[in-house]
Amino acid sequence: MEMNELIEKINEVLAEEFEIEVEDITPEANIKETLQLDSLSLVDMVALIESEFGVKIQSSELINIQTFAALYDFVSKNQK
Amino acid sequence: MNQPILTGEGLYKLIPQRPPIVMVDTFYEADAESATTGLTILTDNIFCLDGYLQEPGLIEHVAQSAAAFAGYAPYTRGEAPKLGFIGEVKKFKISRLPRVGEHLRTSLKVLGEAAGVTLIAAETRVDDECVATCQMKIFIKE
User: Fold this and answer.
1) What residues of B are in contact with residue A61 (Cβ under 8 Å)?
2) Section A46-74 average pLDDT
3) pLDDT tens-digit series, residues B61-106
4) 8 Å CB contact of A40 and B137
5) 3-class SS at B125?
6) Domains delineated in chain B
7) B13-19 contacts, C-beta under 8 A, 24 or more apart
8) What pLDDT is recorded for position A18?
9) Which residue in A has a C-alpha nearest to residue B85's C-alpha?
10) The pLDDT value given to residue B1
């Protein structure tokens, strides 16, 4: 999958799951703030990324994935 | 089919509940990402009404199945089960209420883990018929 296509798909599934507008997602935006994630709903994003893109995010890796740009980069590098 | 790992009172090694509120009687199998539990619905089950297991009983069965799953890894290491909390139950769908005498078999699968919270998908079957599905978030106190 091309990077632009991947970004579009990630934004699409996140916007649908967390009921926000796709336009609210920008590469520099903070994921937790934009998706309004708390300690209970963070796992929803992790499960969604794994089910949609086959990429498992370990808890230890989450600390480095604060922005959507970091998420795009992580998924792109770890997709099989 | 392999023999269950634990049955009856053996389940007490994995869950804190005791009669009359024990809602799992068989722990069939488990690995790091999945597990299978079971329960035969007896006539004296406190969650039954007019010969049917009611919705709270099904939810309790899945919750205790998840607790048994969470307790299994510490059990294999010779440790006591850790205290777990259900953070959220969502997407709970019941196709029909199981009858007294039927055996529930529940498959659990880990969908994701983050910040100490585990998201589990559960599917409960009677023979080949799916009677309930749900997702549950569990927080284990370390």
Assistant:
1) none
2) 94
3) 999 999 999 889 889 999 877 778 888 999 999 999 999 999 999 9
4) yes
5) strand
6) 6-140 (3.10.129.10)
7) B13/B71, B13/B75, B13/B81, B14/B67, B14/B68, B14/B71, B14/B72, B14/B75, B14/B81, B15/B64, B15/B67, B15/B68, B15/B71, B15/B81, B16/B67, B16/B81, B16/B83, B17/B64, B17/B67
8) 95
9) A40
10) 63
Residues in Cβ contact with B122 at an 8 Å cutoff, skipping those fewer than 6 apart: B62, B65, B66, B106, B107, B108, B109, B132, B133, B134, B135, B136
What number of C-beta contacts closer than 8 Å exist between A and B?
A: 41
Chain B, nearest residue to A38 by Cα:
B115
**Looking at the predicted structure, is the pLDDT value of residue B141 above 90?**
no
Predicted confidence (pLDDT) at residue B58 exceeds the cutoff of 90:
yes
Q: Which of A40, A51, A57 faces B117 most closely, judged by CB atoms?
A: A40
Question: Given this model, what pLDDT does residue B91 score?
Answer: 92
pLDDT digits (tens, 9 = 90+) for B12-53: 999 888 999 999 999 999 998 999 999 999 999 999 999 999
Shortest CB distance from B115 goes to which of A39, A48, A50?
A: A39
Whether chain A has a CB inside 8 Å of the CB on B115: the answer is: yes
CB contact under 8 A, B117 and A57: no
Whether A62 contacts chain B with CB within 8 A: yes
CB atoms within 10 A of CB A26: 12
Chain A: give the shortest CA distance to residue B130, in Å: 22
